[in-house]
Amino acid sequence: MGKLALITGASAGIGRATALKLAKDGYNIIVTGRRNDRLELLQAEIKSISNVNVFTAQFDIQQREAVTEFINFLNGEWRDIDVLVNNAGLALGNDAFQNGNLDDWDTMIDTNVKGMMYISKLVSQIMVKRGKGHIVNVTSTASTQVYKDGGIYCASKHAALALSKSMRIDLLPHGIKVSSVSPGAVDTEFSLVRFKGNQQKAESVYEGYTPLNADDIANLISFIVSQPDHVNINDIEVTCVAQANAYYFDKKSGS
Ligand code: NAP
């Protein structure tokens, strides 16, 4: 069937753009997420621009049993996953630690950390058997720095980066590459999700400067997975020109 990439959280944003880019690169694609209508639209779009095979899978990555069921369901060539892009993730709320919403905290940890752990364990077992594979984890500038009122999201991304580095060590003898990409602000549905549908608040995050877009990250992931067999890009942090790190921006007022 040719090369196969599995991208989690592909119903929107970075995951969606990555699925389209890797399909253009010739990968057969498995896309996952909770919104099946979005995944089916993406499947049709990929088919319209390429000749690759596309499989959609709807499940909540927080649910351990659902992740296991999905991986067990894959058979034949659909199990031969060359690239796993761990992208599904979210921030919820923007509260001082002492005022944080416990349900939001659980969802961020269960998605960004535990979901990534569940799927990576199962896919890495497949990769170990095949003696090859590449796992790319979408982390964040928040994986090395913390910012005000974002404590649990930052903690979850610190954990995601730690997992990325530890997977790289444990999978080393098996020839499996592990990379992380840590973006700064990317204009996706991320802020709309964080602010629970408040469009005005979400838009204000990207005002006064030109943020990264989902294609910027997709292109970077495509570059990472297209390196020669003996090359691994370990960890990359990427921001737009107007962003120096997780919290310093050069925003122009009135623009
Ligand atoms: P987005 O547009 O909101 O996309 C998030 C994706 O994750 C969606 O496809 C969503 O699909 C999926 N997802 C969320 N919870 C899920 C769950 N429980 N089960 C399965 N899928 C789930 O945001 P994005 O910016 O593309 O975010 C992608 C990744 O980049 C995240 O890990 C985020 O933390 C990271 N990141 C984003 C930025 C940024 O500024 N945008 C910066 C740094 C890092 P469903 O809702 O359909 O399930």
What small ligands are held by the chains? NADP nicotinamide-adenine-dinucleotide phosphate
The strands making up the biggest β-sheet line up spatially as: 3-2-1-4-5-6-9
Approximate strand percentage = 15-25%
- Low-pLDDT stretches are none
**Number of H- or I-type helical stretches:** 8
Helix and strand pattern:
EHEHEHEHEHEEHHEHE
Shape designation? globular
Radius of gyration over alpha carbons?
18 Å
Summing up helix and strand content along with how strands pair, one would put the structural category as: alpha/beta
Largest sheet: 7 strands, parallel
| pLDDT averaged residue by residue | 97
Helix content: 40-55%
Termini, distance in Å?
49 Å
Number of strand segments: 9
Kindly describe this structure:
The strands form two sheets. A seven-stranded parallel β-sheet has the order 3-2-1-4-5-6-9, sandwiched between helices. A two-stranded parallel sheet has the order 7-8. It is globular. About 45% of the residues lie in helices and about 15% in strands. Helix 5 links the parallel strand 5 and strand 6 (about 175-185). It has about 260 residues and is of the alpha/beta class. The longest helix is centred in the middle third of the chain and has 29 residues, at about 100-130. The relative contact order is 0.14. It has helices spanning about 15-25, 35-50, 65-75, 100-130, 150-170, 190-195, 200-205, 215-225, and strands at about 5, 30-35, 55-60, 85, 135-140, 175-185, 185, 210-215, 235-240. Helix 1 crosses helix 8 and helix 3 runs parallel beside helix 4 (about 100-130). The mean pLDDT is about 95. NADP nicotinamide-adenine-dinucleotide phosphate binds near residues 14 and 60.
